[in-house]
Amino acid sequence: HVQLVESGGGSVQVGGSLTLSCVASGDTIGRYCMGWFRQAPGKEREGVAAFLPSDGSTYYAVSVKGRFAISQDNAKKMLYLQMNNLMPEDTATYYCAAEIFVDCEWPNYTYWGQGTQVTVS
Questions:
Q1: Which residue, among 116, 97, 105, 110, has the nearest Cα to 52 in the 3D structure?
Q2: Which one of 7, 17, 53, 95 is at 20 to 30 Å from 111 when CA atoms are compared?
Q3: Would you call 41 helix, strand, or coil by DSSP?
Q4: What digits encode the pLDDT tens for the residues 8-56?
Q5: Largest Cα–Cα distance of the chain, in whole Å?
Q6: What is the sign of the dihedral through the CA atoms of 53, 58, 64 and 70?
Q7: Could you report the per-residue pLDDT of 48-57, keeping only the tens digit for each?
Q8: In 3-state terms, what secondary structure has residue 50?
Q9: DSSP-assigned beta bridge partners for residue 99
Q10: Cα–Cα distance between 99 and 111 in angstroms, integer?
């Protein structure tokens, strides 16, 4: 099955931007639906953005809509999250996740990366 590794996190000032990357290995990325989640200290994990195969739409959490953009490059086996106008409440560990396409049911994904920390201050 697919293995996922995130990168691109870091510390940024309010209003700044970061691009998170997730590289997949071990399987063809096109067999999976992909998404980004985050978890802040003391809070539950939340889905941030994902491609939804059920209707071909793209999901964004209300809190990030208009500021974040998810994209995918199947040839490079990469998933990206462009984050603009970052705010302190975006501080969290961000995770890339995947589910086999036929079993895809947002937000119940099986395969997870180790996470990358984003700190906004």
A1: 105
A2: 17
A3: coil
A4: 999 999 999 999 999 999 988 888 999 999 999 999 999 999 998 777 8
A5: 40
A6: positive
A7: 999 987 778 8
A8: strand
A9: 33
A10: 6
